[in-house]
Amino acid sequence: MTALASDIPASAVLPVFVVDLETLTCIEASASNFGRAGCRILSDKVCELREVVGLRVNGLDKMLRGKITSIAPNQADVTFLFEESPQGEKRQEKRREVTIPVQVYDRDRTISMHCRIVDASRSGCRLEGPCLEALPKDISLQIRGLGLPVDGKIVWCRDGYAGIQLLWQFSSSQDVSRMRSSADGSRRLGGTANPDGDNAARKRRVRGGAFGSR
């Protein structure tokens, strides 16, 4: 994790997408105060987030996994989690009702379906949609606002619903060194010390949240 502190200037402010891994709520934010163990995210929507989040940062092919350790109006402190979380009993995870539009594909992108995620937990979700039986076991989900597709595996399918195991891919501490070029580029564009300006410039934020209503 020392690479994070050395490769990202502490003054850098990077645009990020933040996804709550429990509810799949997604927000646009800025990330600053990078250090050995974490960063600070800045957004007027941080109160919509719960505990464990994924950060989508330009320059990384995978998301960063982190835990929110403190939260205040318009900002939250995040500790990075580079180690795998312990495998618990998936059926004991709390599931939350959501309404999230999603595009579902087979891995070769020869099949495409518009579906809805109707409940979610950290490790999986339940899809609702027509003809789900036509999908193969291995699928990809394109969730609006996230930028990266999320691979999944169908574990059951019946009566217009399917249970999906989400196969999240997260960055390691070694991967984070690649963020330096993104941070340097942000500084050259003058985006290092004005998060309020960054937020004002992001008028493309989708109303009602990037994933729809909950």
Automatic annotation (TrEMBL):
GO terms for molecular function: cyclic-di-GMP binding. Residues 89-166 form the PilZ domain. Transmembrane segments: none annotated. Coiled coil: none annotated. Residues 179-214 are annotated as: Disordered. This is PilZ domain-containing protein.
